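Weekly puzzle thread! Below is a chain. First person to post its structure in token form gets bragging rights.
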Amino acid sequence: MKHYKAIIYDIDGTLLNTVDQNMYPLIRIIKEELGEDWTYEQVVPFTAQPGLKTIRDLGIRDVEGVYARWVRYVNEYGPGALPYDGIPELLDAAEERGLLQGIVSSKRRKQYGIDMGRHGYDKRMAAAVLCEDTEHHKPHPEPMFECLRLLGVEGKDALYLGDTRSDMEAARAAGMDFAYASWGSFFPMERSEPDFYLDHPTDLIEYL
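Winning reply:
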């Protein structure tokens, strides 16, 4: 069995359940800015891309201002970002096995500090590559290569855990194996597509 030196994680839909926290406020933004009533199903595809790009793609002119309001609504929403069942055990197992742990996410650094810091997960990561850190974003491999550089490992020695096809494409382009987090995904895959198709976070432990 292959032994990895590092495991790199996506956040939204993978480590933390942030979908409702982000999407219901986005529906509110669309209503305020465009006067349109969008369904939950219509906004879910935006979970796979950076928030600023979402605002631009919606054709909203005051991108930074409206994005800031969306962030405020997100942080006012309910209980905040909560880890999926099994994530604490996965992080513990990776640490016990001596793996370096890192993040590649399109989340902005300030929000990363709020969502991950709430649980102390930010302190467990040896590297975090976020929206502001690279010119290109997933599915482009640039953020993956940057995280590998910061961790000091090669792609063949790292595994990426994510919930979208763009996660898989970025990982593969960087020479990394890919584990699919089905528990938080709105982007179904066939079981044969990822290197590891996971029904629960703890399913990955045996492969580390």
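Puzzle host: Confirmed. Bonus trivia for everyone else. The CA atoms of residues 95 and 101 lie 8 Å apart.
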